[in-house]
Write a structure and sequence with these properties.
Layout lengths: L2 H4 L30 H4 L3 H15 L3 E6 L5 E3 L4 H7 L8 H15 L1 E8 L5 E7 L4 E5 L5 E7 L10 E5 L4 E5 L11 H4 L1 H19 L6 E4 L7 H12 L16 E4 L9 H16 L17 H28 L8 E5 L2 H4 L3 H13 L5 H7 L26 H21 L5 H4 L8 H7 L1
Antiparallel strand pairs: 1-2, 1-11, 3-4, 3-8, 5-6, 6-7, 9-10
Helix pairs in contact: 3-5, 3-9, 7-9
Length: 448
Amino acid sequence: MNLITMLFKSRAPTNRTSGSAYNFFMGPSAAGKRVNERTAMQTSAVYACVRVISESVASLPLHLYRYTDGGGKEKAIDHPLYHLLHDEPNPEMTAYSFFEAALTHMLLWGNFYAQIIRNGKGEVMALYPLMPDRMNVDRDEKGRLYYEYQLTSDDPVKKKDTTVILKPEDVLHVPGLSFDGLVGYSPIAMARNAIGLGIAAEEYGSKFYANGAAPSGVLEHPGTLKDPSKVRESWTQTFGGSSNSNKVAVLEEGMKYTPISINPAEAQFLDTRKFQVTEICRIFRVPPHMVADLDKSSFSNIEQQSLEYVQYTLRPWLTRLEQAMKRRLFSEEEKKSYFFRFNVDGLLRGDYQSRMNGYAVARQNGWMSANDIRELEDLDRIPEELGGDLYLINGNMTKLEDAGLFANKEKEESDEEQEVLELDEPGTEGKSGGSPGRASPLHKRNHS
């Protein structure tokens, strides 16, 4: 049985009780525009925020580590899950595509679901993403969770209007922010009014230019028109649209054109659009400069904003993924020894001078070797026999309890030196017991 035929293998459904999922009514926003996950993506700011976060996470290398006996860690390249999540979660997707879809689902629907395909030994063979809007999380009559998924003709298994029941151990579920900790709620649903205003502003601007960048108005005629609709259609056809915006209108029979719409500048149209970009960035916690809004950015703070983006925007999503994968993909025994980590070192690197200064401190204090530094800079390793793996420390440093030993030793040597000098002065030969005119080795060394 291949992986495709193992998809959506149905289990016997259980009795339904009240669902644990929170369903939000999308519907029209306060601005009168209908908002859901798909219409929200037609707003440039939402699309940009979702894209920058999902692509950032998907581009990070994911490694599987095991704890070593000495308390450290090492990459568990020999574990089957390493290749699965680092390179190819299933035969149809790369790791990049898989995690890009995962973050897109979490940012729009608040949840990411993937079906876990196992072999007869219970080992994970593949992970296939599932659409969050067709998944329902519920409890049976005994209080146990189960996942109910609606199949459509878009799925690999061609079944229409079929519902399958999946056990929790067969679903990798990564919830976002939620009320019950089990099912995340949609950020789009929670912020539908802000996004709806952005949609309305974009639509207003589009219609403004569709009308020739000129406000609507009233055509006044001194007499009575037999067919007003014909005159209106003729006017729209001749002067409507951006391509006709510079045409000169010729009015006959005493007709007069009177604009009735307010000027876009008076309505603060551009300010509204700018504010909505900031508002949507606030929803996804994305620095505005990352979606091409540079009004509040400068060369002095843009690097710090980029670092904060990694720490406060990406890290919570990465932690959710790491913990969910460890919880669902490992056996109870493996959880004690293995864990996943996304490598964010590349995103946290500063400019060249800052990196070199940091490496110098790490190298001189003995907690990074030359090869450790070269790996972070994507350089080839120095052979071990040439000292690439040596950990060095500054020779001037010593333990605190030994700080007085060298000072006492120097004082003793100085006292001995002074004593020898006094004994070698003229008239002290007899006292020293040495031959006249002959200096001791120490005396000779100090005068050489």
